[in-house]
Amino acid sequence: MTPAGAPTWIEVYVPDLAKAERFYGGLLGWKFNDMGEDYGHYSIVMLGDEVVAGAMTMDEGMQALCVYLATDDVRALAGRARAAGGQVVVEPMDIPGQGSMAFLTDSTGAAVGAWQSPDVQFQARNKAGASVWYELMTSDYDAAKAFYSDVFGWDLAPMGEQGLPYQYSTDGEGDDAVAGICDAREIIPSQVHESFWRVYLGVPNTDEAVERVKELGGHLLDGPVDSPFGRVATVMDDQGVMFQLIEA
Q: CA-CA 20 to 30 A from 73: which of 81, 152, 170, 219?
């Protein structure tokens, strides 16, 4: 079971799900299973026989790869989010047979979901084709740390020296870390201001995956570059969803 505050679900929001299946199927081997009209044609995304994500249709301009964090009480969490300066965009609601969810913006403007369920979560992670890391890129590092500590119960551990540009903290320490907060003031354009979450998807070879992204109609935005955790590239799919690739 995913501990409270840890990433437990990711969702792909795109205008065209069939187009997304072609792209992510060609890149990562994902298969989209339509849940039918009763669920608004929401898709459960599979990697082999494991659940890797969800996907749903969104209007043009709302493309994203979004992160949901686990909670033991989504309604209490929504109250804490408001008290900590966030906004509740989708009020807590029950998904029959699945669990309960809410959708928020944190105190720095980043969209993030909250998901309460003892059973439903992604099964595939930390391998090629699955998500391997999740981080908030924030324009207000101190406010973000306070929000995720107060609202989601994060136990933050600093990585490296603090007080300099590109400060970084993780929820949990070392091998127990599950997600990060990056001081991205020098990265986020000044006209944007708002923070955002990003997801790292594992691939066997980052350079080869970047070429495959281009073949499938996507774009390379940055990299590939070597990091202490693997070779990383920032890419965009053929509908405008941005994500990271990293050698798993």
A: 170
**Token pair for 235:** 């890419």
Residue 59 inside a domain? The answer is: yes
Give the residues across from 103 on adjacent strands.
Answer: 90, 113
Q: Is the overall model pTM greater than 0.85, yes or no?
A: yes
State the 10-residue block means of pLDDT for the chain, 248 residues long: 85 94 96 83 92 88 88 96 96 88 95 88 83 94 96 90 77 92 77 79 97 97 90 95 93
What CATH number does residue 65 fall under? 3.10.180.10
Which run of H or E residues covers position 90?
strand 87-95
Cβ neighbours of 171 (radius 10 Å):
24
Dist CA 82 CA 20 (whole Å): 34
